[in-house]
Amino acid sequence: MASLLPFFGFTQNDQNSFEVYGYVLTDAGYNFNTIDPAWFDVMRPTKLPGHKGEFAPAGNYFISVRQTRVGVRSVTKTSLGDLKTQFDFDFFGFGKDAGQTTLHLVNGFGQLGKFLAGQTPSTFMDTDVFPVTLDYWGPSSRIFFLNIQLRYTPVRTTTNRFAVALERPGGTADRTDYANTVDIANTRPQFPLPNVASHYRHQWRWGYTQMAGIVKYLRWKDQSDTSAYHLSGSDIGWGVNVSTVIDGTRRTRFKMQAELGEGFENYIADPSPDVALENNSGNSTSPVKGKALPVWGFFLFTEIDWAPKLKSSIGYSVLTITNSDLQAHDAFRKGQYILINLRYYPVENALFGIEYQYGRRDNFSDDFHAVANKIQCAFKFNFSHKVKRAPDLRQ
C-alpha cells in the first residue's frame, strides 16, 4: 500500500478533526445612485441601469445579513492520505432567488489525498489573489466561479502546485431580442463535454505567480421542425488567467490578475453572456451564427496594514467585452470598479469596517453609461468549535 502514496496522498497531519465554523456578518449602507434592486447590497456594473431612469429612484438605504456563513469540515487519516470534507453555505440568493435571503451552497466536496470531487472554487480560479473587501462581490473582473468538478493535484509542494480538473459545463446566451432578424426561440444549449481547467503556481521569495487555463465546448441546437434556417452551431470557449501577489514592504502587498479569452464569461465574477449572434451574410440557410464573445479583464489592488488592528484595501478593476454586431445597442460592453476600505479588528474574531465603492457601466453602441456610488459598513463576528482525536491507522 505504501507504494500508492505518491500517487494518492500528500503528507498527512497528526490528528483527525471535526470543526463547526462560520461567521455572522451584517452589512448596512447607502446607494447614492441606482442598481437592479435584486442586487441592492453588492456592486455589479452589469446590474447598473442600461438606460436612463431604469431602477429609479436613486438614494436607498439597505441592511443585510446575506453574507453570514455556516459550515462544517473534517479531516480523517487514512492509508491513502488525508480524507477531507467541507460543507458550508451562506444566505445570498442567486437565480430565481436573486435579492432574497436564502440558503446558498458555497462548498460541498470531499478530498482523498490528491483527488477531489464536489463543489468548490474552480481550478481556473486563484482565491489567494482576491483583495479583502466588505463587498460580497468584489472586483468585477476577478475569476470567481464555484463549480462542481473532479480535480487531481499531482504536485503540491512549498514552491510548486499543479492541478487539473474536469468541471461542470455551462454558459449563458445573449438576451438581445433578435425577432427582427431571425426566430431563435427554439434554439437550445447542449453541453456534451466537461470543461477542462488547469493551473500552475510557483512560490518566490517575494510572493507567487499563477497561470491558469480553461477550454469549454459550446454547442446549441435548433429544435424547430419548420424553421427555414439552419441555426444549430458550436464554438470553442477558452481563457487564460494570470495572477500574482507581491510582498511590497512589511506593511503592503500588491494583488494583480489579468484574464483574456472567448466564451468563458460565466467564470467571471460579474458575468455577461458567453455567446451572442453575429451576421453571417451570404449564407441563405444560416444568415446568422453564434459566436463566443471575446473578453479581457484586469485588476490591481494594494493591501495596507496601518497597524496590527487597522488595515485597508484600495484598487481598480476593469472588464471589457467585444460585442457582436447583432447585439442590442444597450448591451453591456465595459464595466469599471473602484474600492477603498478601512477595517478595524478590535479583538480576535471581530471586524468593523467602512468601504466606498464606485461602479461604471458603458453600453455597446448607444453612448449611454451609468455610474454608482455606495458606502457600506460591515460588522463581522467569527465562531468556531473544533474537536480533535488521535487517528486509527488500522483503516
From TrEMBL:
Which InterPro entries would you find in this protein's record? DcaP (IPR045748)
Q: What is the lineage of its organism?
A: Bacteria, Pseudomonadati, Bacteroidota, Cytophagia, Cytophagales
The protein in question is named Porin
Which species is this UniProt entry from?
Chryseosolibacter histidini
User: Superkingdom, according to UniProt?
Assistant: Bacteria
